[in-house]
Every structure is written in C-alpha cells, then in structure tokens.
TrEMBL record:
CDD domains: Sialidase_non-viral. Residues 43-322 form the Sialidase domain. InterPro entries: Sialidase, Sialidase_sf. This is Sialidase domain-containing protein. Coiled coil: none annotated. It comes from Oligosphaera ethanolica.
Amino acid sequence: MDVISRELQRSAPDYVVYVPKSVDGSTFDTGNEHFLVFPGPDGSLLSVWTQSSYEGAGDHRIMFTRSDDGGQSWSTPVHVVGPRRPGDGRMASWGFPLLSRSGRIYVLYNQYQGIDDVIHQHTGTMDGVYSDDCGQTWSKPETVPMPRSAFDHPNPAVPSNWIIWQIPMRDLTGKYFYGVSRWVSKAVRTPPLTSSWTQWETVIEFCRFENIDDDPAVSAIQTTWSPASQALRVPHYQQPLLSVAQEPSIVRLPDQRLFLVMRTMAGCIWYSVSADDGVTWSNPSPLLRQDHGLPILEPLCCCPIYQLHDGRYVLLHHNNNGRVNGCSPEDTHCNRRPAFIALGEYRPDAQQPIWFSDSKVLMDNDGERLGPLKRIDIGVYPSLTTRNGEDVLWHPERKFFLLGKKITAEFLADLSVPKA
C-alpha cells in the first residue's frame, strides 16, 4: 500500500472529497484547507476551499467541487481564481460562499495585492466572483468596497489584514453576517514580546452583507462593519495588553441571542454573547463546561461550534492548553491533535447559555506527519452540514486530504451535559 492510500484511512473517514496527487508538493495540490461545504440551490452539496502547494507557498487558489449524491462522490475540482503554481500570479486565499435567494453563488476571498503588512496570506482586498449556473462558470473577479479600520495601516494604499473563516449566517432580517479576524497592522499594533507569529495582535470585528439577495455585481456589494471600539479582544497569556482573538464561530440560541466562541492565546476557548443580533457583544470570557466550572482547553487553533439537526450543539476542539506532545503554546505544528468533540445543550437561566459535556476523541492521525510541511493537525478549518437527519463534519486532514466524518447519535450517546 502506498503512502497516500495508507494515510487516507488513518482517521477512518466516512466521505472522501479530495486526495492530492503527490506527497511532496510536486503536483502543486498538497495544501488543502479552509474547507467549506454547503447546500446548493439545486439540492446538491457544494464546496469551496483554498488549495496550494502548501500553506504560504504563494500559490493559494480557490477551488470548487460538487456532489449530487449526498457526498458519496464529487466532481473533478474546478479552479475558480488564483495561481495554479508558485509564480503564476498573486494568490487568492480563504474563500467563503454566500448564496442569494435566486440561487446565485458568490465566493468572496482575500486577494493579495503584492503588499505585505502582517503577512501576505492575510494582507489583501476583499475580492469575489459569482456563478449563476451552480458553479459551471464564474464571473470575472471584482473588488468589494471595504471601509478602513482603526486597526489598518495609516497608509490607505496598504490593504487590511483579515479573514472570514466560516460560512456567514443569516441574521434575523435575512442579511448575511459574520465575525472577521482582523490582524492589527504592524504600524499600530501592540508590540509583541518575541518574533513568534502567535503574538501578532488580532481582534474580532463584524461584517454584515446588506444586499446579496439583490444579486449585485461583486463591486456593488454593500457591507456594514462594526466600529473598532466594539471589537472583541482577549489578553495574551504573557502580555495582557496584547489581544489574540481570532476565528469566531457563531450559533443561534433558542431565545434568538447569538453565541460566539473564538480561538485565543490564553490556553482555553473564550466566548461572547449578543442579545441584539450581533450589533453589540458581551465582554469575552473563558468558556466553561458549566457556570463556575472548568475552562475548556484549546491551543491556538480554530474551535468551531455547530448546531446539530436535533438542536443540540457540538464543540470541536483539541482539549489541551498548548502544552502537549512535548509542545509549548507557540508550537502549533504539534499541539493540534487529536480532535475532540464536546456536546453542548442550551441552559436558558445560566450565565453561560450553553453548557458542555466532557470531551471525547472524534478522530486522530497518530501524529504521522504528511505533506511538504509534515503536518499532523486534524479537525482544523472544517464545516458542518445537516441533511436528512445526518450531521457531517467536513475537514482538511493534516491540511492535505479533504474528508467527511459523521457525527452520529451513537458517538454522542455517552456524553452527558450537566443539568442546570
């Protein structure tokens, strides 16, 4: 059995979406991440993701594929925008979809413009394309007008540093809405203590897409952004004046409030709640198993929360504070495994409105390194779909394979959430 065939089965996937054609990067497709699967307007499952030779290689591109049989098989991926290999133009990263009520599919992304502020992967304009035929053809790229932020470089010629990493949700008025990870420009950020990228200052802002259902040209998309004064901040564990708050994940509560979790450099997940549909948010706090309980540990890694088809919630995380497998909190190349699930239930009278069970290992890759960067992370930059009572986590395994894992009632049966 060759390396790819063996490693493909290591995490016991239920669905296989994409398998790279090489291990060493020679086919320019061995970096696959930011994997967002969503229902298409014609009953299909659609997906966009960021592909490259490897993360940061300079050839980030946006790819698209579809499944007409519920994820069992997938079409040959279509290149949407971005370079096909290093040196073939400026990269396009972190694409996310917006589906209008007419069925038009927008994909917006971070477009590198040749100017590095924090890092070339995050410094860029918000550009986009759209398709009116379910991904068979795509419009020419255009730029979405993006207002300047107090966290940007004072020179307006330097683009913002940002990423939207999950599929935006509909707000109570039907507009698309989501949290934005905003890396603070080097020109205005709190100085880091070391050269580690884990100390680059970040905050969370919020963006509302006002007119997607009008099917505008990409350049005519209108956005409203939260004021910088209301950005969410979380103190770094060594330098409290420096904020590291990134990659928000948001769910709707039964009482219509919004519940957000985020990755931090504090050794645990933090959360915030909005009672006015995302206009304002509570001061972030550590996420606990229950009121007055223990914090839920997490290194500097995404930790999304999703609502299941039965109304309960699952939190995907790694259940360590960064100091695991011989790592320090800064060693993100080795502390992002295994992937755990905690079951969450709504507690209407609690201070923290979702309480969580103990955590259970969902999947692992045994720490076997793979790909040009020899990655071992699992359960990072995923998405979740619910169809016909089946919940599926779609995830980039070691940022190499694109796979699907069922979240079944049988798996969750032995997880017990504390009672109010």
